[in-house]
Amino acid sequence: MISEIQIHTIARQMLEKHGFEAIAQAASQAQACESRGETDEAREWRHIEDAMKIIRGPHQS
């Protein structure tokens, strides 16, 4: 299990490297893990995805 600090560190690093496309990449990783039955890994990717959404902030319309 990845700690909360590690989740946010990974999320920040992914955003810095890939921009907001990183959110889609994390979602894709989660789906791939889910399709392989790797529920713990999928849960971690979803957590990283959520952390990136928090860092990004609310959508502007």
Indicate the topology:
Elements (H helix, E strand, L loop, with lengths): L3 H15 L2 H15 L3 H18 L5
Q: What multimeric state do the chains show?
A: single chain
Cα radius of gyration in angstroms = 11 Å
Broad structural category: mainly alpha
Q: What percent of the residues sit in helical stretches (DSSP H or I)?
A: over 70%
- How many domain modules? 1
How would you sum up the major sheet? none
User: Into which percentage range does the β-strand content fall?
Assistant: under 5%
How would you characterize the overall build of this protein?
With 61 residues, the chain is mainly alpha-helical. It has one domain. 79% of the residues lie in helices and 0% in strands. It has 3 helices and no strands. Helix 2 runs antiparallel to helix 3. The chain is globular. The model has no long low-confidence stretch (mean pLDDT 94).
Features:
globular, 61 residues, mainly alpha, single chain
Task: Provide a short characterization of the protein structure.
This protein has helices spanning 4-18, 21-35, 39-56. With 61 residues, it is mainly alpha-helical. The protein starts with a helix and ends in a 5-residue tail after the last helix.
